[in-house]
Design brief:
heterodimer, A: about 130 residues, alpha+beta, two-stranded antiparallel sheet, 3 helices, about 25% helix, flat, B: about 400 residues
């Protein structure tokens, strides 16, 4: 079953890995930051080793995006992002795992200080969708 | 690649792998050697024509590759001794005809409990069905690199768990056959549940996987015919596959069972499936696959939903819930109850299912609309559409939910 792990973040300046640019992460003692990074790297190495990692991309800064809308009966394009956005979509990982529990286990790896992580099942993933 | 050659080596693969694996403990080495031999065949056969004895040819080439691999592997210790032993073994293997045993042993090895279900299925596709990593990746809709990692990881787990190419102890055999059946069933649903013909132009793994799953379950039944669950699995796949031509309309929309054009059902598969299950049911223990097949058989026998014997289906679902209590069995019992007794009784059973199950809400929608509770029915359909992960199903449910029923 396939899942997308969506990383919502608002690092300033925009950069990846997002954790390095987040104030919540920066205030932690170096030792704890190192441990969090290592936990993630070890966990994700296992994901790759098991053949569960399908695809992932880090996204460029939201200020580089263009928004497309419908206004007054016509299509209009404006520069992004939504000004009110506290968090922006920063990147995604596509995984293919044997169970929902495993997907949650992997998504947990991504949740660090200042990060919001969303786990979404993919439609037409080949499973029968029953829970 | 020429289909004629492809079919030859797909059929030869379990024999070639079996011949190697019986003499050499490391399954991963044997599997690599077979893949190398298939690559050699893909290069040479189209140019030089099919050899007189293709299986013998493949065993010979794979044997040489295996020796190369082992030489590299054990170059520092007892190299000469092991390679000599192996050369003799492979030379005699070509003359033996143990295809049947090999296929069964390979299936059992691939269904090793140390592997996840999808890894078990992927290994079977390579080891027993002779698919390339690329074809398997297409069947599972993942990139080739991902599938390659998954397969090499599976082989490593097999090695770590001491997976050997030999019959497991008799006491373990029923459990292992059970795992084999589940992996074969997974192969079938993997492609079947996607159900979008637009994704399968021509002979892609979408259309290939159900055929392979059917072939493997046929093989399993032939090799261990005394296990009634093997007959049950084969019957279930035949009866399900029989309905495939009527499952989607020309626009790719899902057609529910009650609206399917039964003239499109494959009669040959249906009679074969029914004969199998009628013979299997009275012979021994009654397992999950036999009961599911028996339910599919009752559906196939009815000329329409109205003339379907719902009382019998209800009894079968009650038995299924005893043998193998799953949400799917409870759902089946709810639907059969609604038909045999009444929609209100069916609704009461649906309440036992998890709130997050889209099937629960879809079934509730149908039952509520039969009770004339249209608003509730519509919201159940829309809730089901939100929860499903199948696009054709979502389109179908949204249509029901937005229509005035």
């Amino acid at each position: 079953m396939k899942y997308v792990i969506l990383i919502h973040s608002n690092p300033r300046p925009w950069g990846h890995p997002t954790a390095d640019y987040l104030p919540e992460h920066q205030v932690l003692p170096q030792e704890q930051r190192d441990r969090l990074n290592k936990d993630f790297e070890d966990g994700f190495a296992e994901v790759i080793r098991r053949g569960e990692f399908v695809h992932g991309e880090a996204l460029a800064a939201p200020s580089s995006s263009r928004l497309f809308r419908w206004r007054d009966g016509d299509r209009v394009a404006t520069d992004g992002p939504y000004a009110e956005g506290k968090e922006h979509f920063a990147g995604f990982f596509l995984i293919d795992v044997d169970s929902h529990e495993r997907a949650e286990e992997i998504a947990t790896l991504f949740a660090g200080p200042g990060e919001t992580v969303e786990l979404r099942p993919v439609m037409s993933d080949g499973s029968d969708g029953s829970t | 690649m020429n289909n004629e050659f492809e079919d030859v080596w797909r059929r030869a693969t379990p024999h070639v792998l079996g011949a190697l694996a019986r003499r050499h403990d490391n399954f991963a080495d044997c599997e690599d050697a077979v893949q190398l031999a298939l690559v050699a065949a893909a290069e040479q056969w189209p140019r030089e024509g099919l050899p007189d004895n293709p299986t013998g040819w493949l065993i010979r080439v794979a044997g040489r590759r295996l020796i190369d691999l082992v030489r590299t592997d054990v170059s520092r210790r007892s190299r000469e001794e092991r390679t000599t032993r192996l050369t003799d073994a492979v030379a005699t293997a070509a003359s033996e005809s143990t295809v049947a045993d090999d296929t069964l042993l390979l299936l059992i090895l691939c269904a090793h409990p140390a592997l996840t279900p999808s890894s078990q299925a992927a290994l079977m596709l390579r080891a027993v069905a002779g698919l390339t990593t690329r074809e398997i990746a297409m069947g599972f809709f993942v990139p080739e690199a991902t599938m390659a990692q998954r397969i090499s990881r599976a082989k490593a787990s097999l090695r770590d768990a001491g997976g050997r190419f030999q019959s497991p102890p008799r006491s373990e055999l029923p459990a292992r056959l059970h795992a084999v059946r589940h992996a074969v069933a997974l192969l079938y649903t993997q492609a079947h549940s996607l159900g979008e013909p637009s994704r399968s132009p021509g002979r892609t793994p979408d259309s290939l996987l159900p055929g392979i799953a059917l072939r493997l379950s046929r093989e399993l039944h032939r090799l261990a015919p005394t296990d009634p669950e093997n007959a049950g699995l084969l019957a279930l796949l035949l009866l399900t596959q029989a309905r495939a031509p009527a499952r989607l309309d020309p626009a790719g929309e899902l057609v529910p069972l009650e609206d399917q054009d039964r003239r499109l059902w494959n009669r040959e598969y249906i009679s074969e499936g029914i004969a199998l299950i009628e013979k299997a049911l009275p012979t021994g223990y009654v397992g999950s696959f036999q009961l599911q097949a028996a339910i599919a058989a009752v559906h196939a026998e009815g000329a329409s939903t109205a003339s379907t014997d719902w009382e019998q289906i209800l009894v079968l679902y009650e038995m299924l819930e005893q043998v193998d209590p799953t949400p799917a069995a409870t759902l089946g019992r709810a639907v059969a109850t609604a038909e045999a007794i009444g929609p209100a009784a069916g609704l009461a059973i649906l309440a036992e299912l998890p709130e997050s199950s889209h099937r629960r809400h879809a079934a509730a929608g149908h039952m509520l609309s039969r009770l004339g509770r249209r608003d509730e029915a519509r919201s159940e359909f829309l809730r089901a559409a939100e929860l499903t992960r199948s696009i054709p199903e979502q389109r179908y449910l949204n249509r029901l939910g937005t229509q005035a029923i």
